[in-house]
Amino acid sequence: MAKPKIKPEIGTEKVVSVSPHWNVVVLNDPVNYQDYVVIVLTNVLGVSHTQAKKYMLKVHNEGRAIVWTGKLERAEMIVLELQQWHLSAQLEKNG
């Protein structure tokens, strides 16, 4: 007796999963001097003095600034390091 041929009805679909990005947000605080914030941002983020000053002014004028966006693990490390320098920093999901 011949085996019946069964054609599977399973379709395959390619799904591309993009891990969400996270924002590192620095918040304004009444404690840290503006020059200190610039120094911390240049050291932690590796940005230029000019870019760090732009971030600092945005924090000062608007109360917050997104200073970095990327993968969760790196974002967590940056937030922790900014907090160790006594800046108010937090994570938020991008988008």
Structure description:
By secondary structure, the protein is α+β, with helices and mostly antiparallel strands. It has one domain (22-93): Ribosomal Protein L30, Chain: A (2-Layer Sandwich), CATH 3.30.1390.10. It has helices at 34-45, 49-62, 72-84, and strands spanning 22-27, 64-70, 88-93. It has a 3-stranded antiparallel sheet with strand order 2-1-3. The chain is rod-shaped. The N and C termini lie far apart (61 Å).
Helix-strand layout with pairing:
Blueprint: E1 22-27, H1 34-45, H2 49-62, E2 64-70, H3 72-84, E3 88-93
Antiparallel strand pairs: 1-2, 1-3
Short account of what is shown:
The protein is of the alpha+beta class.
Q: Any key phrases for this structure?
A:
95 residues; 41% helix; 3 strands; rod-shaped; alpha+beta; 3 helices; Ribosomal Protein L30, Chain: A; three-stranded antiparallel sheet
The total count of strands amounts to 3
Q: How many domain modules?
A: 1
Mean pLDDT: 90
Q: From N to C, what is the helix and strand string? A: EHHEHE
Sequence stretches where pLDDT stays below 50 over 5 or more residues: none
Overall helicity: 40-55%
Summarize the biggest pleated sheet. Answer: 3 strands, antiparallel
CATH topology-level name? Ribosomal Protein L30, Chain: A
Number of helices: 3
Strand content: 15-25%
State the strand order across the main sheet: 2-1-3
**Shape annotation:** rod-shaped
Q: Radius of gyration, rounded?
A: 23 Å
